[in-house]
Specification:
four-stranded antiparallel beta sheet, alpha+beta, globular, 5 helices, single chain, six-stranded antiparallel beta sheet, 223 residues, 12 strands
């Protein structure tokens, strides 16, 4: 990734705004178990990273599927929005461009106009101290309709847990044997951290149960 000033023309006027650009491809981390392939970077992994980054300077960040940028795959791209205003784009590189630049066809990339994002947010950026206490991780596996967007799942988890949720991400999707038609299994990881004190196992488990209860309201069942 890189941040820098980009020169352009918008509304008949030249501009010089600060952008964040990122590309991702290949293995993100080692396999969790033996004889298992490493997790590969894709649209969804970069989406999580980019929305986290965007969330540090703006509120109400979201995606809008839209395929009008020729640099990206026509059916694998989306606008990045802040309060409904387009501030960037995320997607898989167009195969023709990947071939020209000798890049993998699986490369995903994103760009954000940071100054536009700040203006669209309409709120001041605030900072808080970093906790010195260790984080804990809790995982959830749920069965849910494929028609239910993952963004709703993630939003439900965030609302249920609140400030102690430091990070949430999707690390596995399964649709094979034993899964009913029209559903899939999602494995979700949650990183929890307190400020000024450590989580006990019991407290972390209670937080996990809050998330499970919130997902049940979306029609999800634990696995």
């Amino acid at each position: 990734f890189e941040m820098g000033r980009v020169f352009g023309k918008r509304g008949g006027k030249y501009s010089e705004n600060r952008y964040l650009a990122a590309m991702s491809v290949g293995a993100m981390n080692p396999a969790a178990r033996q004889n298992e392939a490493p997790v590969q970077a894709d649209f969804f992994s970069l989406k999580g990273v980019v929305l986290d980054a965007l969330g540090s300077v703006a509120e109400n960040a979201s995606l809008n599927p839209n395929g009008d940028d020729a640099r990206y795959h026509p059916t694998r791209q989306a606008e990045l929005l802040v309060n409904g205003k387009a501030v960037g784009r995320l997607g898989q590189i167009h195969p023709d461009i990947a071939e020209t630049l000798d890049l993998s066809f699986e490369t995903v990339m994103a760009e954000i106009d940071l100054e536009l994002a700040l203006k669209a947010s309409g709120s001041a950026v605030s900072y808080k101290p970093v906790s010195r206490n260790p984080s804990v991780r809790r995982d959830i596996a749920i069965l849910i309709d494929k028609s239910k967007p993952y963004t709703e799942v993630e939003t439900a988890v965030k609302k249920a847990i609140g400030d102690v949720l430091e990070k949430v991400w999707l690390f596995d999707v399964y649709e094979g044997k034993g899964i009913p038609e029209g559903k899939h299994s999602l494995a979700i990881a949650m990183q929890l951290r307190k400020f000024g004190e450590n989580f006990t196992d019991e407290e972390a488990n209670q937080v996990r149960e809050k998330a499970v209860a919130a997902l049940a309201e979306l029609g999800a069942t634990p696995r």
